[in-house]
Amino acid sequence: MAEDYTTFTNIVNGSDTLSERFSALVQDTINTARETYSVNLSPEDCLALTELRNATLGAELVPDELARQIVSMAE
């Protein structure tokens, strides 16, 4: 069963600040995934990255955890 990110997207879409933050994180993550890990992610794929969702909502981004999540998507 696919994950449902409706609540998260509703929260993000309701705030310009969160929307801008998520957009920037997605762009950085897509570039890092491609350049560092040879993983091609779409913006939709980024919704599945718990670390990005948490960072969007204000938690500190943990680069090692984000890297682990990116690599696991390639498996």
Task: Tell me about this structure.
By secondary structure, the protein is mostly helical. The protein has one domain. It is built from 5 helices and no strands. α2 runs antiparallel to α4. The two termini are 18 Å apart. The model has no long low-confidence stretch (mean pLDDT 94).
Which helices and strands appear, and what pairs or packs with what?
Layout: H1 6-13, H2 16-37, H3 43-46, H4 50-56, H5 63-74
Care to give the gist of this entry?
The protein is mainly alpha-helical. The chain is 71% helix and 0% strand.
Summary tags:
75 residues; 0% strand; mainly alpha
Kindly estimate the percentage of residues that lie in beta strands according to DSSP.
Answer: under 5%
- Helix and strand string, N-terminal first? HHHHH
Task: Assign the structural class, choosing from mainly alpha, mainly beta, alpha/beta, alpha+beta, or little secondary structure.
Answer: mainly alpha
* SS elements, strand count: 0
Tell me, briefly, the overall form: globular
Task: Compute the number of structural domains.
Answer: 1
- How does the major sheet shape up? none
Number of helices: 5
Round the Cα radius of gyration to an integer and report it.
Answer: 12 Å
Helix content: over 70%
Unreliable stretches (pLDDT < 50, length at least 5) are none
**Residue-averaged pLDDT, rounded?**
94
Distance between the termini: 18 Å
